[in-house]
Amino acid sequence: MKTTIELPDSLLDEAREAAREGGTTLRELVEQGLREVLARRSRRERFRLRDASFTGQGMQPEFQDASWEEVLDAGYGVPPS
């Protein structure tokens, strides 16, 4: 497939020189560069949320029958109503 891309003149000149020095064509150099960038992106490790769980004795007795709002209020220091 053919496509057109715009590159700064200085980058194109540098790429042509690199291709010439490497004994390859500009097309092959561009293909190789794109393949490397795409391969690097696919290898990039995905974000993993660390395990923040902890051991304990479960729910505190005073919160056993509390609503989530009451638990939040207690966590923010809001006195019970």
Largest sheet: none
Poorly predicted regions are: none
**What string, H for helix and E for strand, traces the elements in order?**
HHH
Give the strand tally: 0
What number is the mean pLDDT? Answer: 89
Strand content: under 5%
Compute the number of helices: 3
Q: Can you give a write-up of this model?
A:
- With 81 residues, this protein is an all-alpha fold.
- It has a domain at 9-43.
- Helix content is 48%, strand content 0%.
- The protein is built from three helices and no strands.
- Helix 1 crosses helix 2 (26-43).
- The longest helix is centred in the middle third of the chain and has 18 residues, at 26-43.
- The radius of gyration is 30 Å and the shape is rod-shaped.
- The mean pLDDT is 89.
Question: Could you list some keywords that capture this structure?
Answer:
single chain, 81 residues, mainly alpha, 3 helices, rod-shaped
Blueprint (SSEs and pairs):
Elements: H1 9-21, H2 26-43, H3 68-75
Helix pairs in contact: 1-2
Summary, kept brief:
With 81 residues, the protein is mainly α. It has helices at 9-21, 26-43, 68-75.
